[in-house]
Amino acid sequence: MVVSVAKETVYRPADTLPLYEAQDLTKGGDLAKIKLEDQLYTLRITRAGKLILTK
User: Fold this and answer.
1) Bridge-partner residues for 52, per DSSP?
2) Can you tell me the distance from the alpha carbon of 40 to that of 23, in angstroms, rounded to the nearest whole number?
3) 29, CA 20 to 30 Å: which among 5, 14, 47, 51?
4) 32 near 24, Cβ under 8 Å?
5) Which residues pair with 54 in a beta bridge?
6) Which positions ≥6 away from 51 have C-beta within 8 Å?
7) Are 32 and 20 in contact (CB under 8 A)?
8) What CATH number is attached to the domain comprising 34?
9) Would residue 36 count as lying in a domain?
10) H helices within the chain, ranges in order?
11) What does the pLDDT read at residue 1?
12) pLDDT value for 16
């Protein structure tokens, strides 16, 4: 017997997604910590204006 379970994926239009300013997350600096469950990540704004997210 083969059982196939498909996971439904819901796509939202881009204009309904939450929008956050990186400068607000870093409170005007260039680093912020972001927690997802028990994992901690670091968000960094580079001198070139790019974002880097690391564990």
Assistant:
1) 44
2) 19
3) 14
4) no
5) 42
6) 22, 43, 44, 45
7) no
8) 2.10.70
9) yes
10) 22-25
11) 58
12) 84
Residues of the chain with pLDDT below 50 are none
Query: What phi and psi values does residue 35 have, to the nearest 5 degrees?
Result: -105, 130
pLDDT of residue 46: 98
| DSSP-derived pairing of the beta strands 39-45 and 31-36 | antiparallel
What distance in Å separates the CA atoms of residue 5 and residue 11, rounded to the nearest whole number?
19
Q: Note whether residue 47 is domain-resident.
A: yes
- Token representation of residue 46: 């580079």
Q: Tell me which residue of 50, 29, 52, 33 sits closest to 42, measured CA to CA.
A: 33
- DSSP element (H, E) containing 23: helix 22-25
Instruction: Output the pTM of the full model.
Output: 0.70
User: Nearest 5°: phi and psi at 16?
Assistant: -100, 0
